[in-house]
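As a warm-up, study this chain.
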Amino acid sequence: MIRLPQIFGNKMVLQGGTPVRIWGEATGEQVSVSIQGESICAPVKEGRFEALLPALKFSGSETLTVTGDETLVFHDVAVGEVWLAAGQSNMEFQMYFDRDFDGEPLGVQDIRYFGVPEIGCEEALERFDYSDWGFWRKNDSRENLKYFTAVGYYFARIIAGQTGHVVGVINCSWGGTASLPWIDPAYIRDTPGVLWIEEYEKAIAGASEDELRDEYLGNLMSARGKQFDDPGSCGLLFGMSHQKQMEMMSHMPPMPAGSHPPYQGAPGRLFESMVNRVAPYTVQGVLWYQGESDSMHPELYGFMLTGLIRCWRGLWREELPFYLVQLPSFGQWLMADGHAYPEIRQQQEQVADVMEKTFLVSTMDCGMLWDIHPKRKKPVGERLALMALKETYGCDVLAGSPRPVEVSSESGKIAIRFSDAEGGLVWKEELAGQDAVSLCIDGCSADDFWWEVSGEELVIASADLKPGSKAQVKLAARGYDPVNIFNQAGFTLRPFTVNVKI
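Now compare it with the structure written out below.
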């Protein structure tokens, strides 16, 4: 008997140019793994084996053979670039709902996709229909393409075009999930993030694990395998006016007294039931788009995100690059609002600035006032791809969300110079919503001021900026604060606060 994890299958993509792990369960004494004329033998210990293939040559179609007391053969195996896309609904958000889906050409590049089944426990695979998930798809038909994570697909399209390699995207996401279930609790118990664990344990006090699991398995809402068959969910993801959302909420029954929090939201739940299903499959890095559901404790998000990155790097046994999507502008959607987003964005920045091989992409132009799910994921995916081309692939490209690096002032004027602004900043007036730039002078909000971009600088001027005064300039300080200032590569400025004495 030989049994490999579900991630290994026909049409899969193996990472090229670096050693590749193949692992699973087996009987017998050893297992042989063969591809591209190379064969590696691995001993079977306590019913498990792990083989480490040498760096493979990039290729469009190979055959992988795994032999022990039986033989498994996988066909149409590509050797290319593999990326893990993870998070909550905005990473899960499928191409089917993306505004550019119908016009997207098929098969221009070879891009492949593996959707990890959204399960809270193994029993869900038997209770619910997950036949649409857990295998590799190609972008060769509209039917296949609709399942792809939109952010991951647009990312892959750029990477495939620049490298000439097949790109595989593994999607490990679940809408509406906070960071807590994606992390082994051991990584946050000794941090202030333990508050999330304590609150969950208090909320389920008196209920056994068996009761909670049975409650989850008995709820048809737990079935996540046929998402396109749910007209209500599809309607929300395609987009619904604020008025219709209010009408929907007015007809929603109140939550029953004594209800438990979602089973999938338990500490480490999805780390065990989903992440462990694909780790340590060899990947180039992780694309992480999450944070909306951490709004209850935004001040803790830095601890949670740091714990998650350390946890996943430990599981993969390497310092995986993490590319983070900063939460975009957002006002209100159903019962959610963006009041905590400025704090979460700041926490995301701090983690990216401190942790090695962790990068942040700002998307302050991509949000929507009345929808938590922006319908155009192309800018998000393309910015992530440019960052990866620069930081992981070593390409000489302009990539990065500009941030303040130098401030100068004189009577009547403040000039803020930005990083990643080669060739000058661009102000796109047609994208203006609320004015995201604000000025405070000596503790009072300034209404009479103007600003402009000049080369790599943002210049703010006011007659009230007099010698000796203290000023504070903010960009995108509110939940919904669309930014319309870009660098030449199309990245918006990061939200920031700058204090200056004139």
